[in-house]
């Protein structure tokens, strides 16, 4: 009798602030998942521990693992905390202070003292910014050759400073990268261990400050990310496991060695993976509108995302704390309200939730790890809307949560602990609903025309209440909502994005130039699929709009109509498109999704069992304690389990209520 063939596995690992989420997809159609508590101050070790645990619990041998895809908040946290050593910057003569001067935008009109636009003293202090003579003009022509007479002194000063990374940011290098490439070659020859980021590779688009800042932050991230990924890859290889692929912010995955060359692309990898997981999970969903909103509630923040026509929506910028970073990434709005957000009563008697947070350490008082301040999680615990033990194995102490809430909220307000907890939860729901409505209206969407998809460990806990406040009639909860980012990593295609700055009129001649450029770029696609887009704007506009482009079939009129329609949706009435300009041509080279993969068509996946032990339908108020998430069904709402194993939540019609 022939022995049964052992399944092959793909493993996705998402490292958040509190838990490591792991999902394994088997060639037999099985999906396995777990949440593993993250240890404070460690990077590679908890990821390895989570993988080891999943393999041990399910008997997966190292030789049965075909691929590992990873994403994390490491880069995001680094840019927020800014606790790494500074870097050096080399710029064109006269541009040494571009990173300090920034754009002089004033977000707070009435602040008497304006903070510096960029924390240059921490990231790239003045004594580590160097100039070099030589000039490329706006058309990409060399006006003056690179002057290298004193460059040995610059290289020596960088070496003596002990910095590990340098950003090379030269004027108009997005039009001609020759001088930047020369400097990298010289730096590598003189300082072989130095990590170098070129603006012509990191962000090859116009606007000097934005390009310089993105490149400088890429260099700032490189030492930590290079060390982290090298340690992770080495440890995985020692276990007989494959080297990891990394989830990128702009979508798609890449080999860790390639991603380490541009680590800034990891800044929004987790939210992008979550949107990818939603898109893949609901791709066959009948009756869903073309636009879906997502809500992902974590320990420190709530992410509001958008899925359009079965694909994650993308933006061209990222707000990371006080830093406005030009980076193509998932179109996600982050709100500083999460499970660890602190609740406090202000002097005037108002209740405030966040932006300060207990984080994962010491965490909410209910965690029993030393935190003693009242948080949103403590309020949920007091209301009985959380299980005695969370999915990651964290036991909740209700008495500690009640004590913290009594001291910080119910005592100052003179109300019961139950009313105080309810006030905290309602404050959170109101803030989330306002952020969701604002995001919808900014994208030309009416919330009433969408469906809200709850993901993450806490999304389903608040989704129905938030939807009701925002005017959304239906909520979906995925069976793997608690680990959807790790799931999305396994659904993302290996991909590489190439951008070219164009800056010419988009007429018939301009379209022909774009087609010739596309032919030059096409060989890099290999045997995979290519998705093209063009960034267009009217003459005089500062910021272009991304428009899908099918080179084989799209005429100029079709593209102009597509641009006008998108312009009208995003910015209101579109002006007459008589002088449209092409700013950027973008190509996304996608490969076939490696197997095994979730939702593979050739494998009949068994039931996920996410809602085991729970009724298939019912009415609130009720907390549904599932394996990976908790779903709160409020008064006046009902739930039912659908054929794809997701839960549909909707308001009960007035005539149907008892």
UniProtKB/TrEMBL annotation:
Q: Which InterPro entries match?
A: ATPase_NBD, Hydant_A_N, Hydantoinase_A, Oxoprolinase-like
Q: Which Pfam families match?
A: Hydant_A_N (PF05378), Hydantoinase_A (PF01968)
Hydantoinase A/oxoprolinase domain span: 211-494
Q: Name one GO molecular function term.
A: 5-oxoprolinase (ATP-hydrolyzing) activity
**UniProt superkingdom:** Bacteria
- Cite the Hydantoinase/oxoprolinase N-terminal domain residue spans from the record: 11-189
> What biological process terms from GO does the record include?
glutathione metabolic process
Of the GO CC terms on this record, one is: cytosol
Q: Which Gene3D superfamilies match?
A: 3.30.420.40, Exopolyphosphatase. Domain 2
Q: What is this protein called?
A: Putative hydantoinase B/oxoprolinase
